[in-house]
Amino acid sequence: MISDKVRPHHLERKALLYVRQSSAHQVLHNRESSALQYAMRDRLAALGWSEIEVIDDDLGRSAAGGVQRAGFERMVAEVCLGKVGAVCAREVSRFARNSRDWQQLIEMCRVVDTVLIDQETIYAPRHGNDRLLLGLKGSLNEYELDLLRQRSLSARYEKARRGELVVGAPVGFVKAGDHYEKDPDRRVQEAITLVFDKVLELGSARQALLWFHEHDLDLPVRGKDGTTLWRRPNYATIHRVIENPVYGGAYAYGKTAVATGHGVAGVKARRKARADWLALMPNAHEGYISWEKAETIRKMVSGNVPTSRHHGAPKHGDALLSGLIRCRRCGRKLTLRYSGARHDIPRYSCTRGWMDNGEPRCIAFGGLQVDDAVADALLTVVGPGAVAAAVSAEAEAIQRRDQVREALERDLEAARFAADRAFRQYDAADPANRLVTGELEARWNKALAHAAEVEGKMTAHDATAPTPAADPASLVALAADLKSVWTAPSTDARLRKRIVRTVIHEVIADIDQEAAEVLLVVHWIGGAHSEIRLPRRRRGQRNNTSTDVIAAVRQLVLVAHDDLIAGILNRNGLVTGNGNRWTRERVTSLRSHHRIPVHKPAEDEVEPWLQLNKAAQFLHIAAKTLRRAAEAGEILGIHPLPDGPWIFSRTDLSTPAAQTITERARRNPRRPAGPDPDHQSLFPSMT
To answer: Is 200 exposed, middle or buried (0-12, 13-18, 19+ CB in 10 A)?
Structure first.
């Protein structure tokens, strides 16, 4: 019987039958539900419609509002144009299970006078009672979906809290019921273990990535279909392995949350703090490393981010305290910049307040002297255990496996297996069927080429000469002189910084203006504190030549040229401010800088200053007699360096004291004048 709600003008327009199921699984397996929905076409025909259009574009799409439904949008558009007399579904919940879509459809049907039909009744949105009933049904449909979702999530979360909810397994693991098991592929296992070993050895995920790229090694990743693929690693590949607690043997769930955005991105996931995770159970299954070691690596990598709480990863620069030093006045970390002709002179300054907020600058000082002082304090602390550490490090290096060769051997084994399998497939095919054998032959050749490529990598690796093992005796000698190893040019700056970060927690710096000193308070890892005070140097002061050397040069120029002065300085073991040997050019540069006049012979050949031999000839006595008299203080003489010449003024050689020495020598020609011959001098003989 035709309802009184269906009018002739409704039948003049077409009817739309909307068919929808929520998931692809329902479409494939719930065939009866689809059949019942398509059978609603007969109900529309019985009600009098001749033109019936079926809209089934939304099969496998949920009506909860999270996805776009092209079929529903086309149906609403047809209703808005006034071309539809009725919209039909098996249940009205098929139209929408969210208030936005449901109310939009009801309002459009009310405006253009379109009726809604399900298996039970006909609804006319222009009737108040029907509109009220439709509103209640829409709310109940939305509530029912929310209730089902809450029940499902509650059961899911409860299972996760017990550690039994295993959704998917990351690369290196397989899903075995309600727990994880290691991937049986030994190549995958060794590759993931190598990732953790390299990050722990090199100190950062980026350095480990560069190591893998340097040796051209691939890492496993999980494909979209769940298979394991081998690809060139990137930073995200290594970082995901480090951050995932599953590899440490822990079960974790609820690490991310859905954040709804209003832009183009829409819904996206964001990581939650570890305290907000739903479940974290260490030692839940067998991991690739222990939970304690995994946490150590994770904290180390997290600490590589240069923030206020973390020191940052060691960089290539020579500055030892980068990321470790903090201002005592404002509490901010000091910034670092390099200057000099080669950009290798560090300088620490507290400029963050000035850069960010326009505040006055706090402190600034050169970094060379500060780094040297902290390094000396560090070497003093670790010095007693240097020998044992050196011997232990060498023993560990001897026992360490060649990780690169082992990884290449695993790659070669996998490549040979792939080539052998390709050959078996080619050999099993019918030779007459060239359409098949041609493709199989190409795959076989490709597998053989890949195996040859891996063999070439192994050959190149074997051709590299291994580093010879150090003699234990030489290690003991190096450990005894740890400073030589520390300052050696071959020692990597990043290694020095990692050692510093292992021993020192933080350094607090300030400047004492009255004393003109840089004040450093070193906070050691063990909880001890030490204070270091350094004179605040002027620009370029660190590499200045010693004042004793400058004073000696001022005296030596009275009787010697620059090349002779260089030889005298080298004979006494003196070096330049940069630690180099003296040359004629360096002596000339020193004199020019300090405005010391060059030695020039007198034009009348009457030298105002004489060396020991010429001074003795002037007095007509032996050189030994004059030297002993000068050592005894009987005559004024200049002796700037222990292993250097004596210098006498011609004026002093004409004094009564000099004449007394001459007369005494003439009265006793067999014994040179001077102190008692049994008297032992502290200075070596120099003529």
So the answer is: middle
Beta partners for residue 259, in sequence order: 268
Strand order in the sheet with 52-59: 52-59, 14-21, 84-88, 115-117, 122-123
Q: Phi and psi dihedrals of 365, rounded to 5?
A: -160, 160
Please tell me the distance from the alpha carbon of residue 464 to that of residue 451, in angstroms, as a whole number. Answer: 21
Burial (CB < 10 A; 0-12, 13-18, 19+), residue 400, is exposed
Separation between Cα atoms, residue 361 and residue 240, nearest integer Å: 41
What is residue 315's predicted lDDT score, i.e. its pLDDT?
62
Predicted model pTM:
0.53
Residue among 222, 237, 276, 270 nearest 253 (CA): 276
The 3-class SS string of 635-670 reads: CCCECCCCCCCCEEECCHHHCHHHHHHHHHHHHCCC
Q: Is 392 a catalytic residue?
A: no
Rounded to an integer, what distance in angstroms lies between the CA atom of residue 121 and that of residue 67? 29
The neighbour count for residue 470, using CB atoms within 10 Å, is 14
Which pairs with CB-CB distance under 8 Å and at least 24 residues apart come from 650-659?
650/606, 650/607, 650/608, 650/609, 650/610, 650/618, 651/608, 653/610, 653/615, 653/618, 653/619, 658/619
Residue type at 546 in one-letter notation: S
Distances (CA, A) of 113 to 79, 90, 99: 9, 21, 20
The pLDDT, as a whole number, for residue 417 is 87
- Out of 3, 22, 139, 490, which one is annotated catalytic? 22
At 52 the pLDDT is 92
Cβ neighbours for 634, distance < 8 A, ≥ 6 positions apart: 657, 660, 661, 674
Residue 312, token pair as written in the block: 């940052």
Mean pLDDT by 10-residue block, N- to C-terminus, for the chain (687 residues)?
80 92 87 90 90 91 84 91 91 87 90 91 90 89 85 88 87 87 89 89 81 87 86 89 91 81 60 86 90 88 66 68 83 84 84 77 86 84 58 52 75 86 83 80 86 83 59 52 70 77 84 86 82 73 74 89 90 84 90 88 82 86 86 86 88 84 76 50 47
Task: Name the residue with tokens 């832009």.
Answer: 263
Q: Which of 39, 50, 42 is nearest to 15 (CA)?
A: 50
H/E run at residue 310: none
Helix (H, G, I), strand (E, B) or coil at 260: strand
pLDDT at 80: 92
CA distances from 126 to 8, 97, 107, 493 (A): 16, 22, 9, 81
Nearest to 534 by CA among 522, 552, 549: 522
Q: What are phi and psi of 274, to 5 degrees?
A: -60, -30
Q: Where are the alpha helices (DSSP H) in 260-343?
A: 291-303
Handedness of CA 423, 429, 434, 436 (dihedral sign): negative
Look at residue 271 in the predicted model and tell me its pLDDT. 81
Those residues whose C-beta lies under 8 Å from the C-beta of residue 443, and which sit 6 or more positions away, are 422, 425, 426
